[in-house]
Every structure is written in C-alpha cells, then in structure tokens.
Amino acid sequence: MSYEPKLHVVLHQPEIPYNTGSVGRTCVAVGAKLWLVRPLGFRIDDYYLRRAGLDYWQHLEWEVVDDWLQLVGQIPESRHWYFSKKATQSYTQVRFLCGDALVFGSESQGLPADWISAKADRCLRIPTRPEVRSLNLSNAAAVASYEALRQWET
C-alpha cells in the first residue's frame, strides 16, 4: 500500500540531531513526510536523533536525499514554500495545498541567500518580536505544519 503524504517537511542540511528528531515527531503527528537533504550535521543512526523523536520514529515516513536536485526531482519546486527570517511575507498570508513542501534551512545558516532573492514570492516568515532573532527550527516546522493543517480543516 502506497502512502501519499498531504504535506512534506524538508530540512536542508540540518545540523542538530535533537531538532531533526523533534521535527520528525511533528511529522508523525500531522502525517507529513520528512525529507533530509545532505550534507547532514549528524549520522542518521545518531542516538540523539532517535531520542528526540522518542518512540515515534518507527511511525515516521522519511527519506534522505543526496542533494537539492534529487529532492526537486521528487517534489517540484512549484510546490515548495521556503521559510526564512529574511522573508517579508507572513506564513499566514498564503494558502497551503495538499502536497506542498515546507522547506527549512540549517540551524546556523538558514536557506541560501540566492534562493531567498530568486524565490521571494515563495518565501515565508514566521513573525517574532524584535528581541528574538528567529524561532528554533523544530518550533518553526511545527508552527508551519499546523497552519497547513488548520487551513485544510476550515
């Protein structure tokens, strides 16, 4: 039986296993597929990755791809939404569709700057107060994933 996720969550070159494990847990909760784009800052069998996902990892649909082009071959870029603190458009101003991909950059670098300028109409920001530089990666993925679900349920 083939499973077609309603939502894809993409971590581009994630560095911290705890964050990736937490994002994986959120993906299980919302029924999303997790994509990890290499290089990764940890090993897939990392204890901390599994620990952060606790016993949910066995229920997670996930895939690791070697590079960005391999991901684009599986999920067309027209379905991608890029999350960045540098974006100007709020994540609540767009309509998410089933099959969309929520794309997040690494914890230390975010997404490549040229992606943000070239894809400005597909870049989204989660607003925060000025005292906060940005949300933690796993929190941002949860906020965005649940917004997509909220839209589909209303």
UniProtKB/TrEMBL annotation:
Protein's organism: Bythopirellula polymerisocia
Residues the record lists as binding S-adenosyl-L-methionine: G105, I126, S134
Keyword Ribosomal protein assigned: no
GO annotations of cellular component type: cytoplasm
Main location: cytoplasm
Subcellular location: Cytoplasm
CDD domains: SpoU-like_TrmL
Top-rank taxon, per record: Bacteria
Gene name of the record: trmL
A Gene Ontology BP annotation from the UniProt entry: wobble position ribose methylation
Reaction it catalyzes: cytidine(34) in tRNA + S-adenosyl-L-methionine = 2'-O-methylcytidine(34) in tRNA + S-adenosyl-L-homocysteine + H(+); 5-carboxymethylaminomethyluridine(34) in tRNA(Leu) + S-adenosyl-L-methionine = 5-carboxymethylaminomethyl-2'-O-methyluridine(34) in tRNA(Leu) + S-adenosyl-L-homocysteine + H(+)
Highest classification ranks of the organism: Bacteria, Pseudomonadati, Planctomycetota, Planctomycetia, Pirellulales
Domain tRNA/rRNA methyltransferase SpoU type per the UniProt entry, residue ranges: 7-146
The EC number(s) this enzyme carries: 2.1.1.207
Protein name listed in UniProt: Putative tRNA (cytidine(34)-2'-O)-methyltransferase
The family this protein is said to belong to: Belongs to the class IV-like SAM-binding methyltransferase superfamily. RNA methyltransferase TrmH family. TrmL subfamily.
Role according to the record: Could methylate the ribose at the nucleotide 34 wobble position in tRNA.
InterPro entries: Alpha/beta_knot_MTases, SpoU_MeTrfase, TrmL, tRNA_m1G_MTases_N
Enzyme class at the top of the EC tree: transferase
Record key words, sorted: Cytoplasm, Methyltransferase, S-adenosyl-L-methionine, Transferase, tRNA processing
Molecular functions per Gene Ontology: RNA binding; tRNA (5-carboxymethylaminomethyluridine(34)-2'-O)-methyltransferase activity; tRNA (cytidine(34)-2'-O)-methyltransferase activity
